[in-house]
Design a protein that fits this description.
heterodimer, A: 856 residues, alpha+beta, six-stranded mixed sheet, 35 strands, elongated, B: 168 residues, mainly beta
């Protein structure tokens, strides 16, 4: 099949060449000294000889070769062209032509024996020009001519530019057709209707026909791959079989050109990275010979090309490690990544997983270029992999670039009836390329009002259980006016790279074939548009660039990934105890957290209401004066405050009875439910330490210190003491333990943690503890029971113990038996004071029964 | 009006206009000012065309028009010059000029004749002319009854220099 194609190419080319030779030989006879002409004749013979040899036509090659020899003598000047010689060469051409005709008809060279001619050519080349023997009677050509018109006659070469021009003209015709169709739809029952229907059909057919002229089978590119695979296999010491399916799938010539390199690269990657060495394969229970499978087929107006191998697959852990090593991502990002995202890392610039750079691949340019090139022609690349089973790369390529199907959507007032004649001012039309469209969702009435939920300025819609970020086209384009008001919400679910989002539009019309036209240079910079087109009514409509819009609303698109992550986390941790945190950013600290339970209110104040009293900012708030304190300068002295100059200013209001304060922050990020462990205590004033909240590293705010600093107090006079004392911290909540532990450690205590009564007793048996701090709600019987058990142990009877309660009520209610005192969890200062007091008393005297007497 | 021999042979390139070879101007009115553009730069003159606005585009860009299948950006000369907008109900005319990057339409109030001028009537723009206008004007031809401002199309279409034209 492929061979036949090559032979056809050869026939067309050779016949053309021979046709030209006829002319040139005659010309050469008249001007035998024209070196250029001679060179051209020589070259033509040379080409013919070369291709015959390549295709294995021995007789043809021999004749051409001998003729070429003669010509080469002439070129070097050792022979002069006589009319005898010219006849000889012309005879050779006739022989060639007969062979070609025969090949075309039967696939084989003519049976005639041309050795006589060859001999005479040989003699001529040597210089002893024999008489131009009586022509060896060319067989009558009639029989051949009678046969059906051959390939050479049925195909012509056409300049690609001409085809491009035709394609453009057809594009214009399609537009004109669309316009006429729309017009005729308004004229009822006229003869125009029938005519325009005919025009419609003809145009469609013409469009198809012209597109076909530019179509080439993908096999044209694939033909080069077997050789490539063989070379790769040899170079890497592997055994690889290449299978190809659907080589006849056709696509536009320009597209074929542009997928050539990406395809080559992917296949090379399969061979080099994908397929394992034979011994490894056998070890894994696979056949020693690896397999690369290429598949191409049409699907929904696109061409799908799949390149699969049965090799090792992609090890995402390795990919992540490599990406971290190359500085493409941070370790904490890597931890958050799912399988799919990790695979997508392969498409980042500067990425290569091959452990060593081979001459085949691994230089770190590659998949990113593949993706860029494919996306440039409106295609997509998708990589899927199963570790140990293989990798598949799926390319989706549009059939053609010039005419694409698109969905027409509208913004603004739309008349329910189709517009007649003159178009109104309202109702701007936009086109969404069909490739990016996943589905359409229409929400009606009640559902429309309720189903789009807002999370801090971001809208989401629950699409079959998944949260879909919602973007309003009107807002993206900065247009005024609020929705259609009809209570209907139209959501076009769009795919932008690996993310989906919903674009809310006022109206959805129909899909149309549109001709993409570029925008002028003044508008090139607008990332929201991919171009413009002319609609059936003659108006210009802008084509939306889905990727551009997604990028413009980047935070929104990012939001979806995050919410999904959170949902997963939420399920995983459903059983754990959790706390609700407010996440916010201030100055250089982009992600700070404080337990929501400590926050009194979140407020926004217009800048105009913020007043200055002394050197402090205040605002009148609920009949009192609320001091406002920019947070960033407290955490990072000397840091410039940005929060206080925003309008409106964002304040987190804290209220612990007598002290009220509004902390000014740059932005509120989110409210997250999570269990938290403090990973790392912070030495920075105002921060307790870092924790992972919502799967991201977050700094925990030390509220006490911040408030103290803000109100000008000197906190923490207790820090100087406490060397070496050990505190047992018994609390069921890991979060609370984490926070308390950080404070205690910062104050210089050693901390022993326990999460239940039993654990606490076990720990106490092993470690000498100076002070016990236990939660009243300690798992395994509660704090009081724990204390009782503890007191029963003689060695522990004298250890002072403090109780921790969640609230003042609880503390007051249970002011417990043998506890030295009861503390409120949030009140860090008095906790540290009490511990300090107990611990230093212990230092001063011996572990003191008299301390027990101090109990209330 | 016969084309002058000096200009007919010249390719319609902006450079040619720079050398002041052309003395034929296609004229139009914008807010009472009388402008001219080298006639060779003008592709055609059109009545009001329906326009598709382009959200997010610079304010000077009024929209896109369909010029026989070609999509042409329309630029409001009033806005470009910092002049007050056209009164309600008044429609703009299109002066379509050729540029290296395809055709661009200039929206003007009123289309005038093609006028022929003497080189001697040319003068640099006076210093006290409103800078917003002076930047876009090459010079002034003193005609018998009024002054013809020669619009510098290159400058006019170069929006990078336009100040105070935030995206809407």
């Amino acid at each position: 099949m492929e061979d036949q194609e090559i032979v056809n190419e050869f026939l067309i080319e050779s016949n053309e060449n021979l046709g030209r030779l006829d002319q040139e030989m005659v010309e050469l006879e008249r001007r035998p000294n024209d070196a250029e002409l001679l060179a051209s004749v020589f070259r033509t013979f040379h080409t013919v000889k070369g291709t015959c040899g390549f295709l294995g036509y021995a007789k043809l090659e021999r004749v051409a070769h001998q003729a070429e020899n003669v010509l080469s003598q002439m070129r070097s000047g050792s022979l002069r062209l006589t009319s005898d010689l010219a006849s000889l060469i012309l005879q050779a051409m006739d022989v060639l032509r007969r062979h070609l005709t025969s090949i075309e008809a039967s696939g084989q060279e003519a049976s005639e024996d041309s050795s006589d001619l060859c001999r005479r050519l040989e003699e001529a080349a040597r210089g002893d020009a024999g008489p131009a023997a009586a022509t060896p009677a060319p067989p009558p050509e009639a029989e051949v001519a009678a046969q059906k018109a051959g390939v050479a006659d049925s195909a012509i070469r056409v300049d690609v530019h001409l085809l491009d021009k035709l394609m453009n003209l057809v594009g214009e015709l399609v537009l004109a057709r669309n316009q006429i169709l729309q017009f005729s739809a308004q004229q009822e029952g006229s003869a125009l209707g029938a005519t325009s229907q005919r025009l419609n059909l003809i145009t469609s057919e013409l469009q198809e026909g012209v597109m076909k002229t530019r179509m080439q089978p993908i096999g044209v590119v694939w033909n080069k791959l077997p050789r490539l695979v063989r070379d790769v296999a040899t170079a890497c010491g592997k055994q690889i079989a290449l299978e190809m399916e659907g080589a006849e799938t056709e696509m536009d010539k320009t597209i074929i050109e542009s997928i050539k390199d990406p395809l080559t690269h992917i296949v090379r990657n399969c061979g080099d990275h994908g397929i394992e060495r034979p011994e490894v394969r056998v070890g894994r229970g696979k056949p020693a010979q690896g397999r690369i499978c290429l598949r191409a087929f049409h699907e929904g107006g696109q061409v799908i090309i799949e390149i699969g191998d049965d090799g090792a697959g992609v090890d995402t852990a390795k990919v992540k490690a490599k990406a971290i090593q190359n500085g493409l991502i941070r370790p904490d990002q890597a931890e958050l990544m799912g399988e799919r995202e990790a695979l997508n890392l392969l498409f980042l610039a500067g990425f290569s997983t091959a452990e060593k750079v081979t001459n085949v691949s691994g230089r770190g340019v590659g998949m990113d270029v593949v993706r860029t090139n494919i996306e440039k022609i409106g295609g997509t690349v998708d990589l899927s992999s199963r570790l140990g089973e293989g990798t598949t790369v799926k390319l989706k390529i549009p059939l053609t670039l010039a005419i694409i199907p698109g969905l027409v959507v509208t913004l603004g007032d739309q008349r329910s009836a189709p517009r007649n004649g003159k178009t109104g001012a309202g109702g701007e039309q936009f086109v969404i390329p069909q490739v990016s469209l996943v589905e359409l969702v229409r929400l009606d009435g009640e559902a429309a009002l309720r189903s789009i939920e807002r999370i801090r300025g971001t809208s989401v819609y629950r699409l079959r259980g998944d949260l879909l970020p919602i973007v309003y086209l009107r807002e993206v384009l900065g247009m005024e006016g609020g929705g259609s008001g009809s209570g209907v919400v139209n959501i076009a679910v769009l795919q932008a790279e690996d993310r989906q989002f919903g674009l809310v539009v006022d109206g959805v019309k129909d899909t149309q074939e549109i001709v993409v036209k570029p925008l002028g240079k003044h508008l090139k910079g607008l990332s929201c548009y991919a171009g413009a087109t002319i609609m059936g009514d003659g108006r210009v409509a802008l084509i939306l660039d889905v990727l551009g819009i997604a990028q413009k609303c980047g935070e929104v698109a990012g939001g979806r990934e995050r919410t999904r992550e959170e949902a997963v986390t939420r399920q995983e941790n459903a059983a754990d105890s959790r706390q609700t945190f407010l996440l916010f950013g201030a100055g250089p600290f982009k992600r700070l957290a404080v337990p929501l339970s400590l926050v009194a209110r979140l407020e926004e104040f217009p800048l105009s209401r913020v007043e200055r009293a002394g050197n402090r900012l205040v605002v009148q708030y609920r009949g009192r004066i609320l001091p406002l304190v920019p947070l960033a300068p407290i955490l990072e002295p000397g840091c410039e405050d940005t929060a206080g100059s925003q309008d409106p200013v964002q304040a987190i209001v804290f209220d612990d009875g007598d002290r009220r304060i509004g902390l000014l922050v740059d932005q509120l990020v989110d409210i997250v439910d999570d269990t938290v462990t403090i990973r790392q205590a912070s030495g920075r004033k105002g921060l307790l330490g870092s924790a992972v909240i919502g799967k991201q590293v977050t700094d925990m705010l030390d509220l006490d210190a911040v408030i103290a600093a803000a109100s000008g107090d000197q906190p923490r006079e207790e820090t100087e003491a406490a060397d070496g004392a050990t505190v047992m911290l018994a609390d069921g909540s890991p979060f609370s333990r984490g926070i308390l532990r950080a404070s205690l450690e910062m104050a210089g205590y050693r901390v022993v943690e326990a999460s239940s009564t039993d654990e606490a007793l076990r720990q106490l048996a092993r470690v000498k503890v100076n002070v016990v701090l236990t939660a009243l709600d300690l798992p395994g019987g509660g704090g009081c029971q724990f204390l009782e058990k503890m007191r029963r142990e003689p060695s522990l009877a004298g250890v002072p113990a403090l109780a921790l309660a969640d609230s003042a009520e609880e503390a007051g209610l249970q002011t417990p038996g043998s506890f030295q005192s009861c503390l409120i969890r949030g009140d860090r200062e008095s906790m540290l004071r009490s511990i300090h007091r107990l611990a230093s008393a212990l230092d001063a005297t011996t572990p003191a029964p008299e301390l027990v007497g101090e109990k209330g | 009006m016969n084309p002058m021999t000096t200009t007919t042979g010249t390719a319609p390139s902006p450079q040619a206009a720079d050398q002041a070879l052309s003395r034929q101007y296609s004229t139009f009115d914008v807010a009472g000012l009388y402008f001219g553009i080298d006639v060779l730069q003008v592709q055609e003159v059109l009545r009001y065309q329906e326009m598709t606005p382009v959200p997010l585009a610079p304010a000077v860009i009024e929209g896109l028009i369909n010029l026989r299948g070609q999509i042409v950006t329309a630029l409001d000369v009033r806005r470009r010059l910092g002049l007050p907008p056209r009164a309600e109900g008044e429609t703009a005319m299109n002066v379509v000029v050729r540029t290296e990057d395809g055709a661009v339409s200039l929206l003007v109030d009123e289309i005038g004749d093609v006028v022929e001028v003497e080189a001697s009537s040319f003068e640099r723009p006076p210093d006290n002319l409103d800078p917003a206008i002076r930047d876009l004007v090459r010079g002034i031809h003193k005609l018998k009854d009024r002054l013809l401002l020669v619009l510098d199309t290159g400058q006019t279409l170069n929006l990078d220099t336009a100040k105070g034209q935030p995206a809407r």
